[in-house]
Amino acid sequence: METLRLYDFLPSGNGYKIRLLLTQISMPFEIIEVNILKGESRTSDFLSINPNGKIPVLEIAGGKYLAESNAILMYLSEGTEFLPYDHFLKAQVLQWLFFEQYSHEPFIATSRYWISILGKTDEYKEKLQEKHQRGYEALQVMENHLTKNNFFVGESYTIADIALFAYTHVADEGGFDLSKFKAIKAWIERIKAQPRFIGIGNVEEEWEKKS
């Protein structure tokens, strides 16, 4: 079995999505660390594999590269239990992946980046107010769905859950209070109980040792 290469900034939730899925499908992979705080995603070498200058990037057989975390999730999950075969259910997975990137990640992930990774809470104080408002709106959409469902699509754990879990379970690091979102908190525990689950810190701790 060929080992995949994952170009990743280890504190990133977008990279964590891929590490979690690869682990849960028992696919061997090698991590190539790209420290975005040091400009390593803007070098000519990295831009040659992803002109958008962002992580994660998955290197696959034949020298092919695939960027955008949710596109990578789709690629890796084809033919597995993590992506439904049913046409409508698959479309619902895409629906939640688009929701995560448009209505969720820009507010919850960005807040975490500013506060916990850059440590610039005061500098972004005014902008954080808007991010938090929109982030809580996204969390409420999730809460409403999870009040009636154990997972996001077809009552089965899919890449839709992985995509949304990545930044939701560390939303507190972006200043969000999850205490009133009981359905989300129960869902988080269901995700953690899945076979071959790994936490974001499993790899982050190693990254911190090397920084």
Automatic annotation (TrEMBL):
<comment type="similarity">
    <text>Belongs to the GST superfamily.</text>
</comment>
<dbReference type="InterPro" id="IPR036249">
    <property type="entry name" value="Thioredoxin-like_sf"/>
</dbReference>
<dbReference type="InterPro" id="IPR036282">
    <property type="entry name" value="Glutathione-S-Trfase_C_sf"/>
</dbReference>
<dbReference type="GO" id="GO:0016740">
    <property type="term" value="F:transferase activity"/>
</dbReference>
<dbReference type="Pfam" id="PF02798">
    <property type="entry name" value="GST_N"/>
</dbReference>
<dbReference type="Pfam" id="PF00043">
    <property type="entry name" value="GST_C"/>
</dbReference>
<feature type="domain" description="GST N-terminal">
    <location>
        <begin position="2"/>
        <end position="84"/>
    </location>
</feature>
<dbReference type="InterPro" id="IPR010987">
    <property type="entry name" value="Glutathione-S-Trfase_C-like"/>
</dbReference>
<dbReference type="InterPro" id="IPR004045">
    <property type="entry name" value="Glutathione_S-Trfase_N"/>
</dbReference>
<dbReference type="InterPro" id="IPR004046">
    <property type="entry name" value="GST_C"/>
</dbReference>
<keyword id="KW-0808">Transferase</keyword>
<protein>
    <submittedName>
        <fullName>Glutathione S-transferase domain-containing protein</fullName>
    </submittedName>
</protein>
<dbReference type="InterPro" id="IPR040079">
    <property type="entry name" value="Glutathione_S-Trfase"/>
</dbReference>
<feature type="domain" description="GST C-terminal">
    <location>
        <begin position="86"/>
        <end position="211"/>
    </location>
</feature>
